[in-house]
Amino acid sequence: MSAPLLKVESLTKHYPLARVFLKRTTPVVRAVDDVSFSVEAGETLCIVGESGCGKSTVARLLMRMLQPTSGRVMIEGTDIAALGSHALRAWRRRMQMVFQDPYSSLNPRLTAEQIVTEPVENFERLSRRQRKALAADLLRKVGMSSEMMDRLPSEFSGGQRQRLGIARALALEPSLLIADEAVSALDVSVQAQILNLLLDLQEQMGIAYVFISHDLTVVQHIGDRVAVMYLGRIVEIGPCEALFDNPVHPYTEALIAAAPVPDPTRVRLKAPVDGEVPSPVNPPSGCSFHPRCPLAIERCRIDVPPLMPMPDGRTVACHVRAPNAPAQLSFEDSLRTTFMAQF
What's the fold here for domain 6-103+172-246? Predict the structure, then answer.
């Protein structure tokens, strides 16, 4: 069996805060904590979760825009987290990123032709004729006319700017594309166009996507597998259809229950959790979700649940519902679990 295109092992990013007087240890923000997953060639892995859960930090760690505190990021078997700047440069061709804001991510002083050909010219010298031909081909791939090559970003609509950002990312023919909230700033009709464009490009070029979003409807449309993050950790990973049809982790259930339902006659269930997300500076002991979890037992307050495989191929970090749950619960915990499962 061949190795996955992308393999992330125990990826961690902590931001130290100012040292507190008379305290021996420096407090840290645990933005990403022990995250592991893999992506096969041509596959789309979606990462979802509430704002502040660490999704965008993971994207920047994968691109080496941030240096990880610990962990490994393996691209085609090479740990890019350990590479120096010179060695990393060669790997930039294999991975590119599409950013959330299609305007601020583009240089307002460059034309469309300059924007989409600039990545290539960082690696090789192009003649004027080659630049024109390359720009025309890239714009055609994303559904834009070559007549737009001389326009500035301010002369494009939001959807066209995002297409331009995708064309720029495709210029180096990467094997991995990371899209960080790539459609969240667009109108719904334009979102559908961009998502269908990404699916068509994936079919034509065999690109793998790490697609980060908070919109579960978008994730259902584009994802092959979904990783659910909470407070810097992954709590569930599984095939998209199985995860939405039968979520295992209580937090995944809460996300799906809270999603808007596009049917005014259908009654939407109340999200089965209350309270706010804890601070990443001082996260709860044990399972970070236990203060809000209706199924929490004593073990959840003490032990951090590891990601454990389930029979249907997904992995879940939950002491109650994953295979590593205790065989015998206390009488009080058994009553609580049985009662809450009915709602």
Answer: Rossmann fold (3.40.50)
Beta strands in the chain (DSSP E): 6-16, 28-39, 44-48, 70-75, 78-79, 95-98, 176-180, 208-212, 225-230, 233-239, 308-309, 315-316
Q: How much of the chain, in percent, has pLDDT values that exceed 70?
A: 88
pLDDT of 148 over the 90 cut = yes
Of 247, 253, 303, the residue nearest 273 (C-alpha): 253
Residue ranges per domain, the chain? 6-103+172-246, 247-343
**The two three-digit tokens of residue 14, written as one number:** 């902590």
End-to-end CA distance of the chain: 43
How many whole angstroms separate alpha carbon 257 and alpha carbon 239? Answer: 18
The per-residue pLDDT for range 260-289, each reduced to its tens digit, is: 766 666 655 555 677 788 888 888 999 999
- Cβ burial, residue 36 (10 Å; 0-12/13-18/19+): middle
Contacts of 67 by beta carbon, 8 Å cutoff, 6+ apart: 81
SS3 content of the chain, % helix, strand, coil (to 5): 35, 20, 45
Confidence of residue 311 (pLDDT cuts 50, 70, 90): confident
Q: What's the mean pLDDT in 247-264?
A: 84
In the beta sheet, which residues pair with residue 228?
48, 236
Task: State if pTM tops 0.90.
Answer: no
In this predicted structure, the answer to whether residue 225 has a pLDDT above a threshold of 90 is yes
As a whole number of angstroms, the distance between CA 103 and CA 120 comes to 21
The residues, ordered by sequence, that sit 6+ positions from 56 with a Cβ below 8 Å of its Cβ are: 180, 181, 212
